[in-house]
Structure formats: structure tokens, C-alpha cells
Amino acid sequence: MADKKATDMTEATSQSEKKAPSALTRIAIDFGPLIAFFLSFKFGGIYTATATFMVASAIAMVVSRVLTGHVATTLKFTFVVVMVMGGLTLWLKDETFVKMKLTVINTIFALILFFGLKTGRLYIKMLMGTAMEMEEAGWRLLTRNYAIFLAVMAGVNELIWRTQSTDLWVDFKTFGYMGIMIIFLFAQAPVLAKYMPQEEKSDKDEG
């Protein structure tokens, strides 16, 4: 019996470690396909980049499953959109579909967050609540801000791909969007500071 408990504890510890990938691994899963898309576009054009992006997205799914023991819902959804829009791009030889992928993903996520606000479901809190404590009002504000951000960026993507060259759109998708996202995340610091429990703020200040 003791041996069984020890084995169970060992397996639980092993699974726990497996579900906590390093920051570098997380970045590779999240941004690896995007970097592969950018590099393959520079060397082979939009259709080669689209095919590469589809393969890289599938690899990211497998890597996430192997290293963390699960695949995030957002990653699954993004993978489906990538496969559909990328497949249409290659089949019809029309780059419009791959360019609209970012618009589709951002719009759907924005609608989900707005729907959650209306129905009392704070999806960002569901995703991040175990890693960070914050008052309900803070989660609502953060959800609203992120939903607005996604809606605006969907519009920005539409404006850029419809009015600018494919080269400029690829640069925006790879670096511009990421840069704007980082700025947006830093801009949420006042929300965290205002609504984070005092104890957690003190711990962060001491650290």
C-alpha cells in the first residue's frame, strides 16, 4: 500500500513537472509557427509560407501535448482556423484567406469575451485565475480592455492587408502585432496595481 502511494506521488510529481514548461518552451510553442511563417515567406513567398505555417502549427500542437500534457483551447481554436484559412489559400491560390486569418481569430475571441462580460463569464479569469489573484472588478476591466484591443487589431489587420503590400503585411503580422501586444500588456499594469490584493502587491514589491 505504501509502495502504491509512493508510486502515485511520483507519477503526480512527474505530471506536475510535465505541465510546467519553461518560458523558452512556451515562447517556442506560441511564436515558433509565426517565425517559421516569416522566414519561409522571405525565401519562398506567401504560398510556401502558408504551407510552412500550417505544418509548424501542427508541430506546436504536438509539442504542447508532449511537454505539458494538454493543448490549450485557444491553441486548438487557432490551429483549426489556420488549417481552414491556410487550406483555402493553397487550394484556391488566393492569399486573401491567409491574410484574413488574424481578423477572423481576433474577431471571434473579441466576441467571446464581450459575450462573457454580458453573461457574467470572465473567460480571462478562468484562464489566468490560478496564476494571479485580482478583484472581480479588475478581471472585468481587463476582459473589457482585451476584447476592445482584439476588435481594434482585427480592424487594423483588415486595413493593412487591403491597402498595403504583402511584404508590409507580413512584417506587421510578425513584428508589428507582437510589438503592439506587448505595449498593450504593459498598459494594463495600472489595472493590476489597483485591483490586485494588497498581500500580493507587497510580495511583488519585496521580490
Helix percent band:
over 70%
What's the N-to-C terminus distance?
42 Å
Low-confidence stretches: 1-18
Domain module tally = 2
Strand content: under 5%
Please provide the count of β strands.
Answer: 0
Global outline: globular
Q: pLDDT average, as an integer?
A: 85
Our Rg estimate from Cα atoms comes to: 20 Å
Q: Report the biggest beta sheet as strand number plus sense, adding barrel if it closes.
A: none
* Number of helices, counting only DSSP H or I runs of 4 residues or more: 10
Structural class, by secondary structure, is mainly alpha
Run of helices and strands: HHHHHHHHHH
Question: What do you see in this structure?
Answer:
With 207 residues, the chain is mainly α. The chain has 2 domains: 92 residues, no CATH class; 103 residues. It has 10 helices and no strands. Helix 2 packs antiparallel against helix 3 and helix 3 runs antiparallel to helix 4. The longest helix has 28 residues. The N terminus is likely disordered.
Question: What labels describe this entry?
Answer:
single chain; 207 residues; mainly alpha; 10 helices; globular
Please provide a brief summary of the model.
The chain is globular. It is mostly helical and 207 residues long.
Give the helices and strands, then pairings.
Blueprint: H1 2-18, H2 23-44, H3 46-68, H4 73-92, H5 96-119, H6 123-128, H7 136-163, H8 166-187, H9 189-195, H10 198-206
